[in-house]
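Problem 12. The chain below contains 206 residues. Write out its predicted structure in token notation.
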Amino acid sequence: MTRRTIAVVTAGLSQPSSTRLLADRLAAATVRELAELRSGVEVDVQVVEVRDHAHDLVNATLTGFAAPDLQRALDTVADADGVIAVTPIFNASYSGLFKAFVDVLEPESLVDVPVLLGATGGTARHSLALEHALRPLFAYLRTVVVPTAVFAASEDWASGDGEGALDARIRRAARQLALLVDSREGGAAADPFADPTPFSELLSGL
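Solution.
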């Protein structure tokens, strides 16, 4: 049986939140698409609620060390076959909490990992933040970002669960992520401590 893990990073500030709602719908659609692509596939969806780690993120930013719960969340993302990342948009960019989580990830942990980007906001005018803020951020991390990003404004939820524009974008983006995840070779994430720099080399720069 083929096993795939999808990490869902959601940075909503409230519970419940439209950000988590969008993340859950993207994850469910991806699971369905993977099932259509390969019979017998087992998909493990692991959700990381960034707000649960807010204080630990500040501490990790200041000290360089992640608390155990935060480290488990970071490992969940690093070990995944695919990532769904969803943030609310504030002032035409991703939230500070979302960026703090990305900042404490190991620099090489998401190289070549398929990523589906999503965002929520009060108005469709924020939708371009996906292209001018989120996509460059994940390009810098050398991820493989799917072509379709999904933005949900307040009015998008009024379309319900039918054949609305939001539903179509979710299905298209989920299909693109599923195709990349299905073709991905499984493997453990690189251990950042497996090949440490010798102490003598560290001292040589003094």
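Discussion. The chain is about 40% helix and 20% strand. Students who got a different answer should revisit the alignment rule from Section 12.3.
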